[in-house]
Amino acid sequence: MAFHEALFPLDVARGARGGPERRTDVVPLGSGREERNQRWSRSRRRWDAGYGVKSLAALAQVVEFFEERRGRLHGFRWRDRLDCKSCAPHLAPAARDQTLGAGDGARREFQLIKRYGGAFAPYVREISKPVAGSVRIAVAGVEAPASRFEVDPASGLVRFAQAHAPAAGAAVTAGFLFDTPARFDVDYLEVDLSAFDAGEIPSIPLIEIIL
């Protein structure tokens, strides 16, 4: 699948609307009860970025980005203001935000993840597009120097140096900023240039992609 490590214009993304989507089959029974079946094992996010285009300059920027992605062909990075941190939106990421797993003395690779909920049925989401330089790691509650690990910003894989594999039973935690892999959900942008010094794109539908 073609993917460009390019970030959708942030000024436009800030005005977007959207959120997570799930697919559930609901079958009503004769008793009045219902059967529910989850079709998707994970959520998929959708947005409309058309609300964020407020100027002719922003409009031109979006058109240029759209053309380089060839419409729906190539994926890209999308910054979701509501959900782009390992912590709550109003906080700064900390090295103990999310538990990635536990060491065994030999394992050196851990995938970045984010958990949603905790009391009933926590949802674990794999984070594949961390923001470069934002990842903080702790082992057994102690933050690790950046020299002891590396992070692949294209996959979200954390790899410890050979001599620093986490000890057996040591919890590996992380804090980070991240983007969501997405693509345009149309191959046509309808641009409105009726205003003299401004313009708008009524709808710019985007959808999360699973890599």
List the SSEs and their pairings.
Elements: E1 3-7, H1 10-13, E2 17-21, E3 24-28, E4 34-38, E5 44-48, H2 56-69, E6 75-78, E7 98-102, E8 109-111, E9 113-116, E10 123-126, E11 136-139, E12 142-143, E13 149-151, E14 157-160, E15 171-175, E16 180-184, E17 205-208
Parallel strand pairs: 1-6
Antiparallel strand pairs: 2-5, 3-4, 5-17, 6-16, 7-15, 8-14, 9-10, 11-12, 11-15, 13-14, 16-17
Plain-language structure description:
This protein is mainly β and 211 residues long. It folds into two domains: 114 residues, no CATH class; 94 residues, no CATH class. Helices cover 9% and strands 34% of the residues. The longest helix is centred in the first third of the chain and has 14 residues. The chain is globular, with a radius of gyration of 20 Å. The model has no long low-confidence stretch (mean pLDDT 94).
